[in-house]
Amino acid sequence: MDTTFLRHSPLGISSFRGSVAGRQPETVRYILSFAHTLETILMARVVLAMSGGVDSSVAAHLLVEQGHDVIGVFMRHGEASPVACATNSEAVSAPLLPVVQPRLDHKQGCCSAADAEDGRRVADRLGIPFFALNLEQEFGRIMDYFVQEYTVGRTPNPCVMCNNWIKFGKLFDYAHSVDAAYVATGHYARLDQIDDGQVTLTRGVDTDKDQSYVLFGVDRQLLQRMLLPVGGYRKPEIRQLATQLGLRVADKKDSQEICFVTSGRHDEFVRSRRGNADTAGEIVTTAGQVVGRHAGIEGFTIGQRKGLGVALGEPRFVVRIEPATRQVVIGERAELGRHELTASGTNWLVDPPAAPRRCLAQIRYNSTAAPATMEVLDGGRLRVCFDEPQQGVAPGQAVVCYDGDRVLGGGWIE
Q1: Do both 146 and 247 map to the same domain?
Q2: In whole angstroms, what is the distance from residue 398 CA to residue 413 CA?
Q3: Does the active-site annotation cover 162?
Q4: What is the pTM of this model?
Q5: Do the beta carbons of residue 413 and residue 395 sit within 8 Å?
Q6: Same domain for 122 and 80
Q7: Which of 159, 162, 359, 401 is catalytic?
Q8: Domain count, the chain
Q9: Active site residue: 110, 159, 259, 359, which one?
């Protein structure tokens, strides 16, 4: 049913309730029940992750326009601060939560103090409460994972972990504390309901910005309590809408950095947190020839071409990283190709297939999904066999399987 007339009518639901005067009792009960249902749908309380960027800011507007009771939440990972956010604190029964102070060394990201201030301004403009959650301990868990993966020669994906553990983990805990029915974010992905009532995760309309890949690890049971308001829009449309609304973040650049790596150098970050572990070693060719040395395996990932520190006259790529010997193995592009991979730690957003199934498999956030056959293995593992060899299959990254635009599930590449 199109309920737009109720959301935007100057009369609204309260006057709709008033229309029962003089009607038969059965009709009155029906109208009041219908009005209650509409209020439940239109005025659901929603906790929205607000990063201070244009996507989550427009998401806030869209949710408010749809009639939801929106609470904006900024998730901070920095050092504890005694300063608290008092913006609209009386508007919702939620604890007053700390907000980070500005840091001069922080690069453009998604969790800086400047971003928190941008989020607060948008919330003020829209008339919604805004709080900052101190998630330093939870982000610390992600940082430890990040450091550990690089130290053992794998390529981590902290954005997926952030979605699994924080945005659709701890944020749901907060939603429970304020009696919110939904958690929303500004991800470019969509949630669709199919005939049997199941909620499915599908790619966003803007294929260039699609973020369904980084949401594959969300608990399937949570899909029905998630909202992704911008998934049906293209990025230029979101920026145009922000401009029309007069939001200062309309032209704000997208976050390009890992939010907790403030220097932009992930290898330096890893070395600063791992203690005295030495991961320096040799750079060797696939033929076993030593051609140089490196400062640490954390500076490399499979498929990397630039920054190898050696010049052989022809392009060379990282083919393997061997943590036991601390060797970085380089070779020609053709040596990168892999027809098959296995993955562990799988998560399924559909019933796991009982037999091999055709799919499209994506091995990195910015890669193109390729035709493949997937097969569920014992022990929560997955095998993916590609029709054509794929380059840059990196242990530690996720492989996500699709049926067209629908996310089926995925796992962590071994």
Answers
A1: yes
A2: 6
A3: yes
A4: 0.81
A5: yes
A6: yes
A7: 162
A8: 3
A9: 259
